[in-house]
Amino acid sequence: MRSRSQMGAASGLPDVHPALPRFLSRADGNCRLLFIRSAAGTGRGYFARSWLGNRSGEVLDWSGGGIDVVLAVDHLVQRLHSDPGLHLAVILPPAASIWALTSRTPCLVANQGDLLLNLAEIGQFVGSETRADQPDAHRLHQLTGGWLAALLILSDDPQASTRARQSIAGGLARWLAHRDPTGALGDAAFLPLFDGRTVEAFYGEFSPVVHTLEDLVQAGLVQPDGLGGWMMPRMVRQILVERVGLRGSGRVVALERAAVNAMAAIHGVEAAVDSAVAHRRWPALLDLLLEHWVDVFIGNPRQLDIIASKIPHFIAEQTEYMRVGLRILGSVDRQSISLRPPGLEPDYATNHTAQRLHQDALRLANKPNAHALTVGMLETVNLRMSGLYIEAGTAAARLRATLHRGLDAQRLNPALVALTELQAGISLYLAGKDSEARQAYESGFHWAQISGKAVLLADVTGKLALLNVLEGDSAAAARWLAEHDATIGDVSCGRGLVARCATMARAYLALARLDYEGFEQTMDVLPPKPDHDEFWPVQAQQLALQKINVGNFEAAKTLISSLRAERRYTAASPLARRLFDDTLMLVEILQGGVMRRGGGAENRDPLLVALGHLLNGNPDAALAALEDVPVTPGLRRRGNLALYLDLAARNPQGLTPELVQRLQRLHQESGVLYELSILGMVPGWSEVGRSVVLEPEEFQRLGYALDLAPAPMPKRPVLSAREQEVLRQLRAGMSRRQIAEAGYRSENTVKTQMRSLYRKLEASDMEHALDNARAWGL
């Protein structure tokens, strides 16, 4: 820095206040009255003397108050009129009204910002000769903001930062006591950067008066940074933060949150996170992520992962939310959400994280806001990651109740609502709660439309398409796929992720049309082996169907069995059990139509059970199984298949002209070929493909499918009334003589009837006959 001898031996200062040339460059040189309204520590007396220079005049210091400024100025005006060569410089008190003074006579006004040295002026003040331990002009500017008293202290002792800050604090405190009595302007010290929009967003968070950047500049709290922007000097910021701290820690936390939210609103969440981390504002940071994570996640899940990586480990470990959230983020890529299967058997009672999130979700549900919905979603996803699918479905139903209360009470972010419904729908679907999942998905679609977020629309429509095609409603599935196709092109990040379910739905639709080539082409879009996406059981079934389509039944069974063994816990979800049981049962039927007992019979599709009975020639048992098919749409409705199998069970004799007309009408309404292919497997109905009018391509596809069907089983034996009576008597343990006596006929007659009965039952003796009768359901 410049030595004291260079600054002037007497005062240690240059002859002229360093800021005066800048002020004079835009001032009226003919004015003889100067008002200075600035805080002590800015060199205001020095500035006044510099302005007077060698001219006739005096400096009047009224900064201490106790004077009627308006009357005093009137007296000064009289003096100026009586003495044309007189110049007066007046240091005003902070509360003085410049408007009232300037209306009385031409004058100059030097405000706080006029006296604070800018970067160039500090550079001139510092000079070129500096010691190694002395800060440069830029650092001095950032520290002091050009307060002259602080600069002088640091010029003598670069280590005296505490004393330099105290020199600012005294003048600033008196200055703000009048300029900022409520402390609102000083609250801006919590903002990390300053521009017009950010300042207004900050005050809009908490203040009834939305102060502007200009207000802060006029108060001398913010000034140009020398690089085209604005800054608040570090020492000024420290003083103001300490001032706010005297009003209580609650005020500090509120302002930290307001600053972080303003940054997020204007500069984006990532910039707000950087700011919060830099200033160690941990509560505000957690609130920020809870409030805004959904918008970042929807835009780019990996960006949220980048943001999370900036959060110190010890902060992330303080809350279950962050810990679970980071686990989820680590499982997301552009193609799937890869939830690694749990290594230990799921146990809800001993799962600490699940219990903690459950308690927090219940507590927060009393105030159903964005925080409550976020924690509720984390709970459901954590349960799914832990293999606790039933519990996840229960938590999802509770989350939806919380959401609906929140919608009744306040305005929620539509994107957050849509994502909440989407995640609840996934949990409900994996838990086997199909109708509830449909409701959640359809509500999610409504809110996704309101949000305008393409990624949400594409995701939820794909899942609705999959749900509908598995219900057998191919027409609805096609409509949802059309909605999906209309939005997937607008998804820029994670397109493969949100298109996964739509692709699987498209594969099922190809099978419904018996379009095996289209099915294979669609399957090529999916991974060659099941990954750990949450809907991997659906893909596993489709991979098994690929093998079934070429007659490789054993390979299909091996695939399902191996996946069940490898993924013991995730394969236990209700959805997975149902799909796998259905697949294995289909293989059993195609391998010979033999209905085996056990092996997950409680999860078997009643339509497949009915088909098995029909293939075994047992229409009565098929009708009994069809009674278990839900009347309302559900996963097991399978379109028209229930109607087709019911017709076959009630008409074991086969097709009639009336039945052909009805089938023709039903097929025209659905257009689904696979239903006809299954019906064509039933004995007596193999000519259905030739009976119903089809397009040539449809006829070819149906013929190929029927070639894969098992050989028709022999028809169920038709017993006469007398033979049925003999069968009941044999089952009751009666001998041939007892049967003859009971029917008042000879033993030879009974012997003839028994021989006919054995022939029809393809049996050689009574025990064999009874076994075969049971197999036929007689």
TrEMBL record:
Recorded hits in InterPro entries, A to Z, give: Sig_transdc_resp-reg_C-effctor (IPR016032), Tscrpt_reg_LuxR_C (IPR000792), WalR-like (IPR039420), WH-like_DNA-bd_sf (IPR036388)
Q: Which residues form the signal peptide?
A: none
Domain HTH luxR-type span(s) in chain numbering = 712-777
Q: Which CDD domains match?
A: LuxR_C_like
Alphabetically sorted, this entry's keywords are: DNA-binding, Transcription, Transcription regulation
Q: Which SUPFAM superfamilies match?
A: C-terminal effector domain of the bipartite response regulators
| The keyword Transport is assigned to this record | no
Pfam families the UniProt entry points to: GerE
Which protein, by its recorded name, is this?
Response regulator transcription factor
Tell me which species this is from: Paeniglutamicibacter terrestris
What does the record give as the organism's lineage?
Bacteria, Bacillati, Actinomycetota, Actinomycetes, Micrococcales
